[in-house]
Amino acid sequence: MAGVFDIELHEPDDTAHLTIQSELQSDEDSIEVEDVSMLDQGSYYETFVNQPDVEAIPISEQNVNQGKEKTGPQDFELRKVLGKGGYGKVFQVRKLTGQDSGHTFAMKVLKKATIVRNQKDTAHTKAERNILEAVKHPFIVDLIYAFQTGGKLYLILEYLSGGELFMHLEREGIFMEDTACFYLSEIILALEHLHHQGIIYRDLKPENILLDAQGHVKLTDFGLCKESVIEGSVTHTFCGTIEYMAPEILTRSGHGKAVDWWSLGALMYDMLTGAPPFTAENRKKTIEKILKGKLNLPPYLSPDARDLIRKLLKRTVNQRLGSGPEDGESLKDHPFFRLVNWNDVLMRRVDPPFKPALTSEDDVSQFDTRFTKQTPVDSPDESTLSESANLVFQGFTYVAPSVLEDVNRPHVIKARSPRKPTFHLTRMNSQPFSPRQTTYQHFPCFNSATRSSVDIGDTMDTGMPSIVNNATTDFQQQRFMPML
Description:
Elements: E1 2-7, H1 37-41, H2 43-49, E2 76-85, E3 88-95, E4 104-111, H3 112-115, H4 119-134, E5 143-148, E6 152-158, E7 163-164, H5 165-172, H6 177-196, E8 209-211, E9 217-219, E10 238-241, H7 247-250, H8 258-273, H9 283-292, H10 303-312, H11 329-332, H12 342-346, H13 369-372, H14 387-390, E11 398-399, H15 401-408, E12 451-455, H16 466-469
Parallel strand pairs: 1-12
Antiparallel strand pairs: 1-10, 2-3, 3-4, 4-6, 5-6, 5-11, 7-8, 8-9
């Protein structure tokens, strides 16, 4: 078993102001009305509206305060349960109102009272919401709405009906190299985009990679991201999922964006062999293997695949592929990707190796039936935070620009003007230990219990965290994945 940890240790716009100077009005700027009775009697109004180039438009909700769409729980119909966790639920929902009425989304519901108990959970939730708003990319889940009630937070995200890459890898056992190459290429572009925005992802694993209806990749769960990381700077947070965590995170020697490329190497190894590169019967031994164990590469891997994995899993950071200023470009130039047209990948012109067999937009066949068979109920909002506690969630509300554009488009009113005319391999019994060979409770839309995101809290201890010294410690607190 392994978990995802987060221990914060050391975390080490100039806008030009436009001054508007007002000048005193002269008498020449004044307009003198000689006959006030015209205004009193309404004749001036009648004269104006009766002009041939003036169009009278009745005031209504459709043409006043456009772009200010207000959305709440009442605007969504609960269709299916897609997952559960310690913080709440994820539902499949259908929009009932507005220009996107009838569209299917994923709705993540978070309990404020549970989140505010832990300062880190609060910070992670806010960071996740902010990143989802700021980052728009073809291979990153899209946030559509965010709103709140007295006791809950709601994130409305695009519904990814293809399910988790984890489930498809579980079903196939291992991927062929061309299949792995497809998924890795899209993931590289997503990670590279995050890095360009000063964001380190830090929790790359199959459970956090979902597929859309066409089979393309979407990264989800941004709760462990680190924002505002500039080139060459490091952070010291102990976080991630053990099997995919880079050595520098485990040793707490400071880490940067190169940790994501280690995780990509671990993910690539997992795809091609059926298990992460360093696993053991408990967390302590798994960590020891990551820090000191030998990397064993199966003989059936191609020379290019072996070389790429070796270069991504270099324990010395500055020797790791992607660690330099060129970032993801050095990965793109590797021979393993020699047949990849990166522009075609970015434009989603490459056919996915697997296209989900779906019957409709709201198909849930790629999700666990233990959840989808449940009756979807958003429990009553019983707890209400104090006004001061609620301040931490100020500014949570969000409406995607694309929604605002759709809202505005049908209601544009133009004044009349006389001047204008009008890829199957079965897992072999001889495969090494894999977390997917064990029986555990797995939550689609949430991190699994064996590889869950857990916050241990801040510590200034210079030794390894307690999880290293106590292999029997079991962290079961789960982090939400932000989307489906």
